[in-house]
Amino acid sequence: MNKFGKWSAAIAFTTLMVVTTACGGGSNTNNNAEPASTNTTTNTAQTTNSGGNSGGGESKTISLGFSQVGAESGWRTANTKSIQDTAKEVGFDLKFSDAQQKQENQIKALRSFIQQKVDVIAFSPVVESGWDTVLKEAKDAGIPVILTDRAVDSADKSLYVTFIGSDFVEEGRKAGQWLVDQYKDSAEDINIVELQGTTGSAPANDRKAGFEELIKSNSKLKVIASQTGDFTRAKGKEVMQAFLKAHKDIDVLYAHNDDMALGAIQAIEAAGLKPGVDIKIISVDAVKDGMQAASEGKINFIVECNPLLGPQLMEAVQNVVDGKPVEPRIVTIESTFTSEQAKEALPSRQY
């Protein structure tokens, strides 16, 4: 079996064994901070037919410029490690940049990759909008772009080759469906508070939309407050404290990722309430800390968001460089977990 066959097998195994969700993090705050960059160079993966700027017939190492959102959560850390480890395994020259959750830094990184004439650019967009100019610059330079984890809202789909990642709307639907099933016979209103991801980000927009689509079928399910927690534990705790002060009868918390849910749990416990009992909690990600909380009954339901995108990304990069067709949308396979299912799956968690 060749290396790409091994990747495919690994992907199938991983998606059965692993779960997650922040698929999130990130901010649209702009400043002059420079992105943190590191280069990892190896010499085994080579090409003679590059989709970017590797030249004609001479064999060379494939160069990949990758801009990451940041390191705001356990999900993101696992995502970064998967990409770095897989690039090293297959011998790509990975030029890695941490945008520190700032769109301006990410744009600087993409322009740096263009100047370096990498073969392929990949990035996880901090927010959905504001990318057309730099993507057109990459296209004009003949460098193909791959989106990972998050999409952009560009109307010009020719600006990127493919988007690899979760279906965030479907994740929201899964969360909403569980809630609908739990309260299908309720005669009373069910008050829901929502911790959204970073404002303007694809996972925040889509997880909210998918959730709302499902719960609108039951008029008893009412979202009484919704505010961003920026995908971080600290902000999740802070916003949940505000929710608890403003609303005395909260039945359900829907958090767009585990880190915010874990912060909210701290606030709920500090208020003398029991998470998972007094306030039901739904989360997205299924990182190890979230799964631990679920196994303890503090989170009632977790929707998986798989961070281990490295194998799929490297295979797509190789296919692009080789001039092979690539599907415009590559969706990761993901599951869901009740508290009991989380308890069973926890020992095998990879992150």
UniProtKB/TrEMBL annotation:
Main location: other
N-terminal signal peptide: 1-24
Domain Periplasmic binding protein: 65-324
Species of the source: Paenibacillus phyllosphaerae
Positions of region (Disordered): 28-61
Pfam families per UniProt: Peripla_BP_4
PROSITE patterns linked to this entry: PROKAR_LIPOPROTEIN
Subcellular localization(s) per the UniProt record: Cell envelope
Lipid biosynthesis as UniProt keyword: no
Family of this protein: Belongs to the bacterial solute-binding protein 2 family.
GO terms for MF: carbohydrate binding
Listed Low complexity bias regions: 28-51
InterPro entries with a match to the protein in the record: Peripla_BP_I, SBP_2_dom
Protein name: Simple sugar transport system substrate-binding protein
UniProt KW keywords: Signal, Sugar transport, Transport
Top-rank taxon: Bacteria
GO cellular component, one term: cell envelope
